[in-house]
TrEMBL record:
Database matches in PROSITE patterns: GNAT
N-acetyltransferase domain sequence ranges: 3-136
Protein name listed in UniProt: GNAT family N-acetyltransferase
Keywords linked to the UniProt accession: Transferase
Superkingdom field: Bacteria
GO molecular function (one): acyltransferase activity, transferring groups other than amino-acyl groups
Gene source species: Candidatus Roizmanbacteria bacterium CG09_land_8_20_14_0_10_41_9
InterPro entries according to UniProt: Acyl_CoA_acyltransferase, GNAT_dom
Pfam families, per the entry: Acetyltransf_1 (PF00583)
């Protein structure tokens, strides 16, 4: 089944709200000392037969494009990669020097996914999640694979090479 990617529009508000609350525990994302409301950000939607199957939200600032959230609702079918590819084009059009993302130490799946898509680990912030948890207590103590969620890991795709 063909998957298509399009920018989000006003009609997607409920879908975005539902996905963010369900997948990220509340309507806000707290990361590297910043609080984001994904429903107020630009984003990309993946669709299959008019059914929404993926969401990426991002922020472009000072020639840098940050991935704020990325969720594939049907895993291992190429949806995440399609969203990432489309974001790269968007970032290039926006004259960005890089696309970057912060994930956490427990998220081995995301670390694998980004690195296999040419993203490189740039920085590690030990214990940074403690600060985020003060603003967003819904961030679990234990994450995927039973690993305590503690550190933030920044990855980037350099667009100047
Ligand atoms: C990380 C995430 C976005 C990846 O999305 P995804 O749609 O599963 O990604 P893809 O399908 O493009 O790629 C995943 C794997 O499926 C494989 N795949 C893609 N299409 C496939 C197909 N048709 N058949 C079999 N395998 C396939 C890819 O090759 C890749 O395998 P690899 O890890 O061995 O390289 C998804 O796991 C997710 O939503 N995670 C939860 C939220 C999260 O952590 N987000 C990232 C932090 S912001």
């Amino acid at each position: 089944m063909a998957t298509s990617i399009r920018p989000i529009n006003k009609n997607d508000e409920t879908f975005i709200d539902d996905v963010i609350r369900k997948e990220w525990g509340s309507e806000i994302i707290v990361v590297h000392g910043k609080t984001y409301k994904p429903k107020e950000l630009p984003g990309l939607i993946a669709e299959e037969n008019s059914k929404t199957v993926g969401l990426l939200t991002y922020k472009i600032e000072r020639n840098e494009c940050e991935i704020v959230t990325l969720n594939s609702l049907i895993k291992h079918k190429g949806i995440g990669t399609l969203l990432l590819d489309e974001l790269k084009k968007t970032a290039e059009r926006g004259r960005c020097n890089r696309v970057w993302v912060v994930t956490t130490n427990d998220n081995l799946n995301a670390l694998r996914f980004y690195q296999k898509n040419d993203y490189k680990i740039k920085k590690i912030y030990p214990d940074a999640v403690e600060e985020s948890r003060k603003i967003k207590p819904q961030i679990p103590l234990i994450g995927e694979n039973g690993i305590p969620i503690k550190d933030e890991i920044e990855l980037e795709l350099n667009l100047t090479d």
